[in-house]
Amino acid sequence: MSDSERFNDHDDGLAVQEAKPKLKKPPMYKVVLLNDDFTPMDFVIEILMEFFGMSEELATRVMLQIHTQGIGVCGTYTKDVAETKVVIVNEYSREHQHPLMCAMEEV
Ligand code: TYC
User: Fold this and answer.
1) What letter would DSSP give residue 80?
2) Which of 4, 13, 14, 82 fits a disulfide with 77 by CB distance 3.0 to 4.6 angstroms?
3) Gyration radius of the chain's alpha carbons
4) Is the minimum distance from the CB of 47 to ligand 1 under 6 angstroms?
5) Average pLDDT for runs of 10 along the chain of length 107
6) Distance, CA 65 to ligand 1 centroid (Å)?
7) Residue pair 106/32 in contact by the 8 Å Cβ criterion
């Protein structure tokens, strides 16, 4: 066997590019509600049911958690959806003269 046969690595010096990894998942955002001393409990429960699709039972539990802990998660969404929820909830609360604060945090 000749040297050129023995040492030929058959790739002609070309590096083969591995397949690019798939695109990263989009960052997700938690939409949160903050406690305050003035917004009625029933109004917070209504928000959690209407805008975050919770049952009355779950909404009540989440509202009480916010009431005692100061903050609670309503859901986790892509950036656009989270931003829209925050705007809609804050507008709805102001329309009803409540100071309830909705915000978002990157997960
Ligand atoms: N702390 C309010 C009260 O006692 C109730 C409340 C709960 C307000 C959750 C805001 O995000 C909130 N009426």
Assistant:
1) H
2) 82
3) 26
4) no
5) 46 71 92 99 99 99 98 98 98 99 98
6) 9
7) no
